Amino acid sequence: MWRLAIISEDKNAPTALSGLDFVHFAGHFSPDDDPESIIADETLDALLLITQGLEKVQDSLPRMAEKLPVLLFTDDDRVEQINLALKNGISSYVIRGFDPQRLEPLLKVAITRHRQSMEQHERLRRIESALTERKSIERAKGLIMQRKQCSEDVAYQAMRRLAMSSNRKIADIANDVIRASGRL
What we know:
It is built from seven helices and five strands, in the order E-H-E-H-E-H-E-H-E-H-H-H. By secondary structure, it is an alpha/beta fold. Helix 5 (103-148) packs across helix 6.
């Protein structure tokens, strides 16, 4: 059973979904409510956003979609609104198609898509971090080579020895070298 919160101007939205046995509704919120208080509930599996347009929620979409899968049901079929929603991480954008019986497969897809998106973001973050570390190491090697008039291998081995003897990452040693060179 999935725990969902509904964000909708329509006060009757929870009633339309009350007969579904695969969901538990954690609450019904207005688009004017504080999104942080909604997504603070660690037990939620997804958010259902039922709205005529994105105007009232567009500023909070990225934060909501970062935290949870968001299924958006709307009558707004404007391409710019669809692009805005997808750019901000909406997991599912359903136009004129709010049918409680279709909710279960839509939830499955949205939750899977959100999980995959979060995994991609984490992979990208790790790759960017590794690239930044590599750049720092290369820059520090160049500074050591210039200062000590040594080869690239000697400069790298010096940083490696220092990293091992101080139980630190070589990228941290490289950053120390770069900072120290700025003070010389």
